[in-house]
């Protein structure tokens, strides 16, 4: 059986892919093959997603080795993973997989108000400059999970769809443990060397995000991942996911997806143990640091220090520009 994990973004994908990569050999000993082809030098199969999306830096030939490895595999369970596939055409993916046997399409879904805020912040961390209201107006379709799932169900069948909640009982789930459970194993048993770490792909709090967005307007060629994480590692309080919309705005946004979410759940969700999305509960506005406060000043110092360091380490003039592609998956179309 082949499990194709297609995301979505901002649902613990980096943590899952890192665990699968570190535990590749342990998994193989337990009958789970995390396909090596297509992820050379990376923790996930982002090249496959970029190829079917016809990106200039990826050729469909990258799928050749993947098909060969799957066909030669004697493991009962095989796994591909890239959240970039959630942006890809399902028909193209099926065509590239060829005559593969039983396939399962796995998606983790986050309630849209939280998902879209977090997804936007990822674009800023990746170097984008667009303001949130403009981005949200253009990207509301990203929250249309029903259309996304239908596209994959049309190609692989309704029974192939495995929807999983990103939140349960008021907290985010352990995606690694949950995914390994879907494969029919216990994560503690098949990933003995797994080490739980903090967030691998955090979202910056609003104040920090705006400073980074302002820096992005300078359009300086730097290592964006290194720049971003060199800031985030200085203070755990820099990480905060959903603080761009107030409660009324969140409620209004969710209302736009209410009907399609009901159809999605009724048609494709098969877990009676917990809801796919948590109920919306209005929250008090979080505290924001203001200019003049020590936390705000320290944040500016950290950003400026990281910026100076990043600019000093940028490629020499005349060197070829390297297109930025986040390890957690490309966001250039977000």
Question: What can you tell me about this protein's structure?
Answer:
The protein is α/β, with parallel strands linked by helices and 334 residues long. The chain has a domain at 2-113 and 142-190: Rossmann fold. Helices cover 45% and strands 8% of the residues. The protein is built from 14 helices and seven strands. The strands form two sheets. It has a five-stranded parallel β-sheet with strand order 2-3-1-4-5, sandwiched between helices. A two-stranded antiparallel ribbon has the order 6-7. Strand 6 (167-168) and strand 7 form a beta hairpin.
Protein topology:
Layout: E1 2-5, H1 13-22, H2 24-29, E2 32-34, H3 46-52, H4 62-72, E3 77-81, H5 90-97, E4 103-109, H6 112-125, H7 132-139, H8 145-156, E5 161-165, E6 167-168, E7 171-172, H9 175-182, H10 187-190, H11 206-216, H12 224-232, H13 247-268, H14 294-312
Parallel strand pairs: 1-3, 1-4, 2-3, 4-5
Antiparallel strand pairs: 6-7
Q: Report the C-alpha radius of gyration, rounded.
A: 20 Å
Number of strands: 7
CATH domain fold name of the domain at 2-113 and 142-190: Rossmann fold
- Main CATH class of the domain at 2-113 and 142-190: Alpha Beta
User: Which residues sit in consecutive blocks of at least 5 with pLDDT less than 50?
Assistant: 322-332
Overall form = globular
The CATH architecture designation of the domain at 2-113 and 142-190 is 3-Layer(aba) Sandwich
> What's the main sheet like?
5 strands, parallel
Beta content? 5-15%
Total of helices: 14
* Widest beta sheet: strand line-up: 2-3-1-4-5
Q: Helices and strands: which structural class?
A: alpha/beta
Distance between termini?
A: 31 Å
The mean pLDDT is 92
Helices and strands, in order, run as: EHHEHHEHEHHHEEEHHHHHH
In which range does the helix fraction lie?
A: 40-55%
